[in-house]
């Protein structure tokens, strides 16, 4: 990122590059390098306050930064931190961005399931699905909910609300 002229001029561009690099490193099981890249992303994101940037990167705000951070934490296996990032993301996303809210709510459900909070995960998963518009075609959201269901099923829980969600989710995932 340091060699890119765009990254030197635009801190948001640099931050996004560092964040994507952090995610890739986390998925390659290189936690130290991933955390270093995420630290660079945080620092360069902080320098973006008051800087005019291109319209194409206007999507990359604090909510998106936190959402991408949650992906890194998930890849590193720190689901509690991922959950925290997702709560901040969901609090910051405008209500009219329904598809994004549904996607990040599905990821929240998965983070909760991976922490063993299966009842909470089932309720969150239900909320995520209810947010989806019937014709939205959001495969990322439904795939995330399918993984959530697999994680929950693997626990073998017999809690009625969880069993109900598992059965219900089989109809729409």
Defining traits:
mainly alpha; single chain; 9 helices
Task: Record the SSE blueprint.
Blueprint lengths: L4 H5 L1 H17 L3 H16 L15 H14 L3 H14 L5 H17 L3 H14 L7 H17 L4 H13 L1
Helix pairs in contact: 2-3, 2-4, 4-5, 5-6, 6-7, 6-8, 7-8, 7-9, 8-9
Report on this model:
This protein is mostly helical. Helix content is 73%, strand content 0%. It contains nine helices and no strands. It has helices at 5-9, 11-27, 31-46, 62-75, 79-92, 98-114, 118-131, 139-155, 160-172. Helix 4 packs antiparallel against helix 5 and helix 8 (139-155) packs antiparallel against helix 9. It is globular. The model has no long low-confidence stretch (mean pLDDT 91).
Summarize the structure.
With 173 residues, the chain is mainly alpha-helical. The protein has nine helices and no strands.
- End-to-end CA span: 39 Å
Task: Give the SSE string.
Answer: HHHHHHHHH
Secondary structure: helix percent: over 70%
Query: Can you give the mean pLDDT?
Result: 91
Number of helices: 9
The fraction of residues in strands falls at under 5%
What's the alpha carbon Rg, rounded to whole Å?
17 Å
Counting DSSP E segments of at least 2 residues, the number of strands comes to: 0
Secondary structure class reads mainly alpha
User: Could you name the ranges where pLDDT drops below 50 across 5 or more consecutive residues?
Assistant: none
Q: What spatial form do the alpha-carbon principal axes imply? A: globular
Sketch the major β-sheet: none
């Amino acid at each position: 990122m340091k060699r890119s002229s765009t990254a030197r001029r635009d801190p948001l561009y640099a931050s996004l590059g560092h964040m994507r690099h952090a995610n890739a490193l986390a998925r390659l099981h290189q936690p130290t390098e991933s955390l270093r890249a995420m630290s660079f992303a945080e620092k360069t994101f902080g320098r973006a306050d008051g800087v005019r940037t291109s319209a194409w990167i206007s999507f990359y705000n604090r909510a998106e930064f936190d959402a991408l951070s949650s992906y890194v934490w998930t890849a590193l296996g720190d689901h509690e931190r991922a959950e925290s990032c997702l709560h901040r993301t969901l609090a910051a996303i405008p209500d009219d961005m329904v598809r994004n809210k549904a996607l990040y709510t599905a990821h929240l459900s998965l983070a909760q399931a991976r922490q063993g909070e299966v009842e909470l995960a089932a309720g969150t998963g239900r909320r995520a699905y209810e947010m989806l518009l019937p014709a939205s075609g959001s495969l990322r959201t439904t795939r995330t909910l399918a993984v959530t269901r697999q994680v929950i099923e693997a626990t073998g829980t017999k809690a009625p609300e969880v069993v109900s969600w598992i059965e219900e989710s089989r109809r729409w995932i």
